[in-house]
Amino acid sequence: MPGRLEQKAILITGATGIAAATALMASREGARVFFASLVEDDCARLAEEIRGQGGVCDWRAADLTVAAQVEAAVEQCVKRFHLIDGLFNVAGISGRKFGDGPLDRCTEEGWDATMAVNAKSIFLVTRAVLRHMIDRPLEERKCRGSILHMSSVTAFSPETKHFATHAYAASKGAAIALTQTMAAYYAPHKIRVNALAPGLVRTPMSQRAQEDKLISLYMKIKQPLAEDMIEPEEVARAAVFFLSDDSRMITGQVLAVDAGWSLTSA
After folding, report:
1. Residues 132-189: pLDDT tens digits?
2. How many domains does the chain have?
3. What are the start-end ranges of the E strands in the chain?
4. CATH code at 148?
5. Is the CB of residue 59 less than 8 Å from the CB of residue 13?
6. How far is CA 141 from the centre of its chain?
7. Is the entire prediction scored with pTM above 0.85?
8. In contact, 14 and 37? CB cutoff 8 Å
9. Which of 3, 27, 35, 160 could bridge 12 with an S-S bond, Cβ 3.0-4.6 Å?
């Protein structure tokens, strides 16, 4: 049986954590995967893993906050696969090491760095992809493409004790606002736009939390479905759904993959 992403060209930003899990899962579903990320070694490692399972992929190391590098990556993807059927904007940072925190203590560097990687990169990558999607001939499915942004449950369900990083939450709130305004504008163009809002996921970005015993205990209550951190593959499942034709009548939605985070009062 063909996979849900058979022969689709999917561009993913990032090469570790949720991005890597989605790239691997998309490849198993038949996608041709292109990924762009800052660290060349991460890209090479992920490419080897995808090709090792028989998948087709390409990649480019790029600073996704720099327009020229973003455009070069998107052009390479189009040159290799001729089109882009789906985009998943995953790449991001916590900003804590740059000075993100409660707003009265957040540094200007922390704010700017977090907004650049988490919000500006979405703008630059999505803009470049849209310029290829918007004029492509309509397929039988009557859809030109699916765009998926990465938000966070902290954008609408804040946690004040362990995760008081306000620039991060603001950047993820921006992803939700962009998702909804884009979805309304591009629906007549047959381009779908949705977002995922995960809880705490076991990725390289959450290493600090993984090493904190108090946070580990807290997750047993805060994320009751997992009683732990969420594995990247659980978020990847939702991403593949939104990138596939299974969600062809869905746009403008924000799906919380949070193991119950937003429903608990812990």
Report:
1. 999 888 866 589 999 999 999 999 999 999 999 999 999 999 999 999 999 999 999 9
2. 1
3. 9-13, 32-37, 56-61, 86-89, 145-150, 191-198, 254-257
4. 3.40.50.720
5. no
6. 24
7. yes
8. yes
9. 35
